[in-house]
Write a structure and sequence with these properties.
The chain is α+β, with helices and mostly antiparallel strands. Helix content is about 40%, strand content about 20%. The strands form three sheets. A five-stranded mixed sheet has the order 5-6-1-7-8. A four-stranded antiparallel sheet has the order 9-12-10-11. Strands 3-2-4 form a three-stranded mixed sheet. Strand 5 and strand 6 form a beta hairpin. Helix 12 runs antiparallel to helix 13.
Length: about 400
């Protein structure tokens, strides 16, 4: 049976949700129609633009720049603080609405969801008309717009929803990949980071189509297992499943921290990464999952973001293993610039270790997992610093 996937993406979520909330509370102006931004607390080094209105964009205001720079570009710009509790409520509200169409809904992020509509043709005769209905009802019920991508897998559905915004529906089926996706710059391909794009461009690969036709042996030699992913993604190949229902496990875990001052010393970055490894590791174990892909993310003092990731031969869940992999990524990717924000992202989850172990190794892994469980219990009771493996104190 051919799969049918929707990707629903809220247009300019933070600003849209804030605008709707203000209007519901009697605010006289729709902030989407004036120069406005959602911005963090400048006194805590979070004074950057998180979202901007279309008119603010016309003044040249961009996401992640300082509010100071935004005001220089447009002195009359209105700044509104983010409200994560509000955004979480709006996200859950949308999720509940989408569940009426299929129980197979995966909330990919706070403002994005995948719907698996495979096998529902007896309910919905025309999927494009269904998407039109969703888009219209979301606008009428909740007061904001969404983009919807329709495809035969998650990758293509997400790519389709990004084609043109806002308030649009796009398809990207197998027969449309060459026409719609291949002409796009390789930087538009999902999960291909800036450093990989730079390397691809040095190889003369500028478009997704050129990547799709590239020699996989060369890609794997340069990018390791990530090379195979990029080749398949460029050809629109993706077998990942949509998480089912409200109890579906997170498909990604991430943590990041804005530092109180710009950090240029590797040892200081290691201390932050140590804490973050423990945090994401414990959450991963609570979900009883193993991660097969790990990434490190940076934002420097020029507000430039970059990241680097690796796909693991053996999926992991221990904080110590996460930390050791993160240190490898740090060595490979940090540009020795001044860092104001650093983080870790885990993805590609499995319910068990991906690598086949021998009987002896399985018994050893079982003992390690039990020890880790006891360590987590101690930390839950006495705090994170109550116990720490010696190898994580580097």
């Amino acid at each position: 049976m051919e799969r049918l996937i929707f990707h629903v993406d809220v247009n300019n979520a933070y600003l849209s949700w804030t605008a709707v909330d203000l209007l519901e509370r009697g605010y006289s102006i729709d902030i989407r129609t004036i120069p406005s931004v959602i911005g963090g607390d400048e006194t805590k080094r979070h004074g950057i633009v998180l979202a901007k209105s279309p008119i603010a964009k016309k003044y040249g205001i961009v996401t992640a720049e300082t509010l100071y720079m935004a005001r220089k570009k447009c002195p009359r710009v209105k700044v509104f603080p983010p409200d994560m509790n509000l955004y979480q409520r709006r996200s859950k509200e949308l999720y509940s609405y989408l569940l009426q169409f299929t129980p197979s809904v995966e909330r990919y992020s706070i403002d994005e969801s995948f719907l698996d509509l495979t096998g529902t043709s007896f309910l919905y005769q025309d999927y494009y008309q269904l998407a039109e209905r969703m888009k219209r009802e979301i606008k009428e019920k909740f007061g904001y717009t969404v983009n919807i991508g329709i495809a035969h897998n998650k990758l293509c559905a997400k790519m389709a929803s990004d084609f043109e915004k806002p308030d649009k529906i796009h398809t990207l089926f197998e027969g449309e990949i060459e026409q719609k996706m291949w002409p796009l710059p390789v930087s538009d391909l999902f999960m291909v980071g800036k450093s990989s794009v730079a390397t691809l461009k040095s190889l003369g690969i500028d478009t997704i189509g050129e990547l799709a036709k590239a020699d996989e042996i060369i890609l794997k030699r340069i990018f390791k297992s990530q090379g195979s992913y990029m080749k398949r993604a460029a050809n629109g190949i993706d077998e990942s499943e949509v998480g089912l229902g409200k109890d579906a496990k997170n498909k990604c875990l991430s943590v990041s921290r804005t530092l109180p001052f710009d950090v240029r010393q590797k040892q200081e970055l290691k201390k932050v990464l140590l804490e973050q490894s423990e945090e994401v590791g414990r959450e991963l174990r609570k979900q009883k999952c193993y991660a097969s892909t790990i990434a490190i993310t940076y934002k420097n003092n020029q507000f430039q973001s970059y990241s680097h990731q690796m796909t693991l031969e053996t999926s992991i869940c221990s904080s110590e293993e996460i930390y050791q992999k993160v240190l490898l990524l740090l060595d490979r990717s940090w540009r020795e610039d001044a860092i104001r924000n650093i983080g870790i992202r885990l993805s590609d989850f499995t319910d068990q270790k991906r690598k086949q172990l021998s009987l002896f190794e399985e018994q050893t892994e079982e003992k390690v997992d039990k020890i880790q469980e006891v360590v987590d219990q101690i930390k839950d009771k006495y705090g994170n610093t109550s116990i720490l493996p010696a190898s994580m104190k580097k």
